[in-house]
Write a structure and sequence with these properties.
By secondary structure, the protein is an alpha/beta fold. The protein has 9 helices and 8 strands. The chain starts with a helix and ends in a 13-residue tail after the last helix.
């Protein structure tokens, strides 16, 4: 009897996963844009590579506002006294949508790779506008730097990662020091940024579009553009885009990287064939990780950016 019940539940789970995958593969981009991150997160949870990661803390406030909270994912093997590299992941959604709970797939994927992963919410349009979401993002990083040592992370090895609007937030914090300084933190805490399909050079704004609603009233509007703050001493950038992305064109990554390199900094561009704007973040989830090596490439960069820095040996005076 117990065996039949187990097999019945297993069959129901398999049928559910098959249906979910049909929906995801059949209309993945549309589903993500319309809130499909929740479904993607569910598919990742059901089809994930065993456990390997766990939610250490949920709904941790980093500020006083209703959207100023974060979740923390860690490797399942985390032990007391560990000091692992840290990734703060900012989700996308055009600055007008997104919930940290729907991005557990990103937290789990990166935690399985050995990182402590912080996934914050931030204020959104229409209740908030530029620079509210940048101020929140900076506050989340400042909180992480102050508290992560007690939670298994290394405050001296923090990198940022984001998708779309989240990549914009991450890159702006790395390039323009004013945001972390305003959060009473040190801009030097950021060791590198991995940006997925981020808008970095997108003037003129599309009238009535998401960026226009989020920042269209800012003057001068150039203040909103990451490319304006390209500098040689910025943290290294890894900027990835899907070749078929018609929401945020790959030229955003290419233009910013070229500007940073011209200034003497470090920036790498990776363009993935056969995927679009949503596909590049979907590649972090278990059902899609084999389509493109986005997770492997991003974590290779993040490991290098957060590698331990060894102080030079003192010179011996003869």
């Amino acid at each position: 009897m117990a065996v039949r019940l187990f097999e019945g539940r297993r069959l129901i789970k398999i049928l559910f996963v098959v249906l979910l995958l049909v929906l995801l593969f059949g209309g993945g981009a549309k589903m993500i844009v319309a809130g499909g991150a929740k479904s993607l997160n569910m598919a990742d949870r059901l089809l994930g590579q065993g456990d390997g990661a766990r939610l250490l803390i949920a709904d941790q406030p980093y500020g006083r506002g209703p959207r100023q909270s974060l979740d923390i994912w860690v490797p399942e093997s985390l032990r007391e006294g560990d000091r692992l590299p840290v990734v703060v992941f900012f989700y996308g959604g055009g600055w007008n949508s997104g919930e940290r709970g729907d991005y557990g797939f990103a937290g789990r994927a990166l935690a399985r790779q050995g990182f402590v992963v912080v996934v914050p919410d931030y204020r959104l349009v229409p209740k908030a506008h530029w620079p509210d979401f940048l101020e929140d993002s900076a506050a989340a990083v400042a909180w992480t730097h102050e508290h992560i040592a007690k939670l298994g992370g290394d405050p001296d090895r923090i990198a940022l990662m984001g998708h779309s609007a989240g990549a914009y937030n991450a890159v702006m914090l790395a390039l323009d020091p004013q945001w972390l300084r305003a959060a009473k933190s040190d801009p030097a805490v950021i060791r590198g940024v991995a940006g997925l399909a981020g808008p970095y050079d997108f003037l003129p704004l599309e009238k009535g579009g998401r960026a226009d609603k989020a920042m269209g009233k800012v003057r001068p509007i150039e203040r909103t553009q990451p490319i304006r703050f390209a500098r040689g001493d910025a943290p290294p950038l890894w900027l990835a885009s899907g070749e078929e992305d018609d929401v945020v064109r790959p030229r955003n990554s290419q233009n910013l990287a070229a500007a940073v390199v011209r200034a003497g900094g470090s920036a790498t561009v990776r363009i993935y064939p056969d995927i679009g704007h949503s596909g590049i973040v979907m590649a972090l989830a278990a059902p899609f990780q084999n389509r493109q090596p986005v997770l492997d490439d991003a974590t290779d960069f993040l490991r290098g950016a957060t590698a331990r820095r060894i102080a030079p040996a003192a010179k011996v005076v003869p």
